[in-house]
Write a structure and sequence with these properties.
Length: 245
């Protein structure tokens, strides 16, 4: 009598978990082979099992189980989730950074993955407070809210949290006034950060595509440079010499 088994487990980049197991068991009467597979993803969880007796022409037995959840709040309804509980969070990401993936961290543990335009339900235990935040999977220029958000869940509670992630590009060039003189040591303001030109008017700053940069040198009135129609080279834009108007 005895048994022998082997197991394999893998978790993909989007936190889908796959587990496989195969076993053979011998007792005083029969020899039995068994295999099962489990998968857990943002859509739900499934398990398939096959049992086969080796001797005596035993019939093959099959088993299949699938479960998912429905999270319904005042402003959203989502189907999915693998760890079902009495309360849930629906995480939604909007914005223009469609190629950037974010992990949803709950108490600093990645629980789901989002891209702009997607939404996912995450089921959690009730009577707990949780800290949620986003973290980009790769270091890319993107503007998003990185602050933690605290929620408290009770049985039947569905919280809908929304984030936005917008693409940024690094622009560099030389800013000059209308008379052609460089804007020396001028303060620069974009929608996401501030910067400063050097003693020759050269600058580099992160900004959203198509927005307007504001420059102010000393006590002079502010002037602007529009990025509308600027040619992008990936995440960079070479402006050359630009006139601040």
């Amino acid at each position: 009598m005895g048994s022998l088994s082997a197991q394999w487990f893998n978790e993909t980049e989007d936190h889908t978990q796959v587990a496989l197991e195969a076993a053979i068991q011998r007792d005083v009467e029969t020899t039995t082979a068994r295999a099962n597979a489990e998968i857990g993803s943002q859509l739900g969880s499934a398990r398939v099992e096959v049992l086969q007796g080796i001797e005596g022409g035993s019939a093959t037995q099959y088993g299949f189980n699938f479960q998912t959840g429905v999270a319904f709040g005042s402003s959203a309804l989502k189907v999915g989730g693998r760890d079902l509980n009495q309360s849930a969070v629906i995480a939604t990401l909007a914005g223009s950074s469609s190629n950037t993936a974010f992990d949803v961290l709950i108490d600093d543990v990645p629980r789901a993955r989002l891209t702009a335009g997607s939404s996912v339900p995450i089921f959690l235990e009730a009577y707990h407070a949780y800290q949620l935040r986003l973290q980009p999977v790769e270091a890319v220029p993107v503007a998003y809210d990185s602050q933690s958000r605290t929620i408290t869940l009770y049985p039947g509670t569905v919280q809908h949290l929304r984030w936005s992630a917008d693409r940024l590009v690094t622009v560099f060039g030389k800013a000059v006034a209308a008379n052609g003189s460089p804007l020396v040591n001028a303060a620069i303001k974009s929608s996401t950060e501030t910067g400063q030109t050097d003693e020759n008017g050269y600058f580099q700053v992160d900004a959203a595509p198509g927005e307007t940069l504001e420059f102010q040198a000393g006590g002079s009135p502010p002037c602007t440079v529009s990025l509308a129609g600027v040619h992008l080279e990936g995440d960079y834009a070479r402006l050359g010499e630009v006139i601040c108007k």
